[in-house]
Amino acid sequence: MSGAKTVAIIGAGPVGLAAAAHVLERGMSPIVLEAGSQAGHGIRQWQHVQLFSPWEYNVDTAAARLLAPTGWNSPNPQAYPTGGELLEGYLRPLATRTPLREVIRTSSRVSAISRVGFDKAKTRGREQAPFEVRYQNGKGPEVLRADAVIDTSGTWFSPSPAGSNGLPAIGEAERADRVAYGMPDVRGAGRSRYAGKTVAVLGAGHSAVGTLIDLARLADEVPGTQAVWLLRGADPAKAFGGGRNDKLAARGELGSAFAALVTSGKIRVETEFGVTHLWDSEGRLKVSAGACCGARSVVVDELIVSTGFRPDFSFLSELRLRLDPAIEAPVALAPLIDPNEHSCGTVRPHGARELAHDEPGFYLAGMKSYGRAPTFLMMTGYEQVRSIAADLAGDRAAAERVELVLPETGVCTRGGVESGEAAGCCGGPAMEEVSACCAADETAKKAGASGCGCS
Q1: Rounded CA gap, 357 and 110, in Å?
Q2: Which of 101, 191, 247, 449 sits a CA distance of 20 to 30 A from 19?
């Protein structure tokens, strides 16, 4: 692909715009197709959320070079932006004040990608055929031809359902008016919907944790608000994270705050709760783990499903993708990000080699490249597209070079169990009143011992 000139980029989020900046810097021509009406459309859905990483990790290097001549004021590198601040302070100027404004096509939803004159089964001469990208805009169907394609469309608009088997719970679609997904703004735009209500949150990731914390704060402001945490697993402490050992301090603080709320009883916890059914119950919502008489159930007013996201491959059916059957990530990347083996800081930087498919010139990047794995960091996406742009330009050395050092954390999962000795932390974060690396260390020191030995 050293002769590639036109690169179609799907999605104008942070990673998509970074891809465009790197492609442009390499002397190629990016064309960015964004389904929303503005760049960063996905982030607008969670603009109330504060990022775990400070500004220094959220600005791509090539994008910063594009912004420099515009008089852009780089934010305080140590400050933690919200999604809205990321939009206003970085993505909007990048999309409107740099040469990228000429290559972004908004309200352009990609519907299909293939090779010109080649269906999926035809091989001879395939690599030389350009890509045909079909998309819909206000004028109707359009076709774009490109030498390469980078899909950074993300996963935000394809959330995982409530069912513990990966399928929608029975009755989930029929009760959609009382079910929300991801991380709704429960104290802001959604306040009237959730204030004074009993709200169940299903999930154990950062979206679920953040939403439960916001609901607990809403309960302090509006009497009658009750947060119920529905946890598929048996151990709530696994959601508490690395505490002070987390190199992303905001992520560690979130886990510590959440642990305190759960311990205090402000958040009701239902463990080993695998949702199977949603029912009507006298004007409320009955959430059940099991179908029959012995099924466990909770009755709530609203359900928030924060069980992660999954990629949409529907418009890629004519391309030759090599995806891991479980994680739905590129096969070379999947072992590095498998959530059964990795979390926190154990995912090493990677690039074009791990993201390649049997369709030369096509790459998944950003959150979509991680399939169903939740361990993605924005800075990882920036490194991905830097490597991909170098690969498309024929600069193999730069494509193979690692230019990113990821922050590490003290608690990571290996093989489904907490790796205390390796990670330096056992049993969740320590509380503030004791200087300790973790909960187990804190307990030992309170008892007069020098520590638990896990670090």
Answers
A1: 20
A2: 247
